UniProtKB/TrEMBL annotation:
Signal peptide start-end: 1-23
Region (Disordered): 464-488
The protein, known as: chitinase
A single GO molecular function term of this UniProt record: endochitinase activity
Sorted UniProt keywords: Carbohydrate metabolism, Chitin degradation, Chitin-binding, Disulfide bond, Glycosidase, Hydrolase, Polysaccharide degradation, Signal
């Protein structure tokens, strides 16, 4: 067995029976892969072959999208996703990772921040369009050898429209049109825009003060009944195929209250991937940790006592999500700030500007752990672990960044075990120190620590073999599929 170099830093006490969704492992270790990282420069470039399948029970490929004209699933980056027209075939290369780890389940994520909510609302609103969508998904998953679908709809009953001239009907929903576009920046812009809306603007419930149902739906998304009906029908279609159905769900109380009927969703979803991060960021005018495990007294003072992992997890549990269906999110990145005064550098220190962009993620206010550990190795940083939040942050001159480190991972995986949750989820693999450049003695130090604390030793991979790449333009979609995806 291959043992992680950081195993001494984490506990390996296991206390639950094997979960049928987790397979041979005691706990889930779900790993999102943001495929736009293939376009990052230098050592930040991450391709399918950089994904370590031995550190994950489930790998989720992010993202596919929805064709708003046909209501069918589609590739968002055909040149990278498909082999068609001399493309890179990342779908098939990703699902081929199961050859190295036969226990791995590969899922296709659909949605993400830039996809918005409106077209998903429209698709879910009628039985015929739902069935068109579901049939296309089943065929798509079969074609590319995925084991299931992760529904990353952000969010039902929110973010429903780009029509600014109607935004006055619902007050603060006007901010919904500000999210950035573009495949490569999907992850970072999603992180900033999601919580900027939720924290600063706190939009009211969908359709408030709107009397016309279609108008309310068009602006704020679909009725929650449509979302539940959609996942119910997807699950029914998946059962004969043995496909898994999971969903990425938001961390904020407002989003949970407005977007989800948890007890109904729990009937059909195999796993809730709880995005327990992005509680604070540079959309605010003060410092705050990206994913604090617990509340600080300062949170009460600033009316942010719900902005922590412990609150989110328990709110889902109290709302009816079974603990054995919850994968708790752990971020492999941090949020950074530029301090107004370098002498004032604690939590909630004034900070009107984001940290300057890091070289790989290239988005002000966000750095991957691979970028953060490189910065820290340069020296001159002061690192603090807040005793109340049990969260770590570092500062140097005017730069302040909150992130998760090895000790944070131990705290969070111990928490997962203490509650008997299904396991962990990470966003996302391409921002761990996947090249092993920061001196931890192993590649992917955070993911390795997560695995060893939850599941013990890392399995030995099956010897690697490479599937021959097609030599000409092809269309590998099955003949029953009408959707034609072409290269660029």
């Amino acid at each position: 067995m291959r043992v992680a170099a950081v195993a001494a830093l984490v506990a390996v006490t296991l206390g639950v029976a094997v979960n049928e969704v987790a397979g041979a492992s005691n706990y889930l270790a779900t790993c999102y892969y943001g495929t736009w990282a293939v376009y990052r420069p230098g050592d930040g470039k991450f391709d399918v072959e950089d994904f370590d399948p031995m550190l994950c029970t489930h790998g989720i490929y992010g993202f596919a999208g929805l064709d708003e004209a046909t209501h069918k699933i589609k590739s968002l980056d055909p040149w990278n996703d498909l082999y068609d027209n001399y493309g890179k075939g990342a779908y098939m290369r990703f699902t081929d990772l199961k050859k190295r780890n036969p226990e791995l389940k590969t899922l296709l994520g659909i949605g993400g921040w830039n996809e918005g909510s409106t077209k998903y609302s429209e698709m879910a609103a009628s039985a015929s369009s739902r069935q068109t969508f579901i049939a296309s998904v089943v065929d798509f998953l079969k074609t590319y050898n995925f084991d299931g679908l992760d529904l990353d709809w952000e969010y039902p009953a929110e973010r429903g429209g780009k029509t600014i001239d109607k935004a006055s009907d619902i007050g603060s929903c006007s901010i919904y049109a500000t999210a950035g576009q573009g495949t490569e920046n999907e992850g970072s812009e999603r992180l900033l825009a999601t919580e900027k809306e939720r924290i600063l603007h706190r939009p009211p419930s969908c359709g408030k003060n709107i009397t016309h149902k279609a108008t309310a739906q068009g602006i704020c998304g679909t009725l929650l009944e449509d979302y539940v009906q959609l996942i119910k029908e997807i699950k029914e279609a998946f059962k004969p195929e043995g496909f898994l159905l999971t969903a990425a769900v938001g961390p904020g109380k407002t989003t949970i209250d407005d977007s989800y009927k948890l007890t109904e969703m729990a009937k059909y979803l195999d796993i809730f991937n709880v995005m327990a991060y992005d509680y604070h960021g540079s959309w605010e005018t003060f410092t705050g940790h990206v994913s604090p495990p617990y509340m600080s007294p300062l949170d009460i003072t600033n009316e942010m006592e719900t902005f922590n992992v412990n609150f989110t997890v328990n709110y889902y549990l109290d709302g009816g999500v079974p603990k054995e269906k919850m994968a708790m999110g752990i971020p492999l990145y941090g949020h950074g700030f530029t301090l107004n005064d370098p002498a004032v550098h604690g939590l909630y220190a004034p900070a009107n500007q984001p940290q300057p962009a890091c070289p790989y993620t290239r988005q002000a206010g966000i750095c991957g752990f691979n970028e953060i550990c490189t910065m820290l190795n340069e020296g001159g940083w002061t690192t603090v672990r807040d005793p109340d939040q049990q969260a770590v942050y570092s500062y140097k001159d005017r730069i302040w960044v909150g992130y998760d480190d090895l000790e944070s991972v131990k705290i969070k995986t111990d928490y997962i075990k203490s509650l008997g949750l299904a396991g962990s989820m990470v966003w996302s693999v391409e921002t761990d120190d996947f090249r092993g450049l920061c001196g931890f003695g192993t590649k992917n130090p955070l993911m390795t620590a997560i695995w060893t604390n939850l599941n013990g030793d890392i399995p030995t991979p099956v010897p690697h073999t490479t599937t021959p790449r097609p030599t000409g333009p092809v269309n590998i979609l099955s003949s029953s599929t009408t959707l034609r995806l072409t290269g660029r």
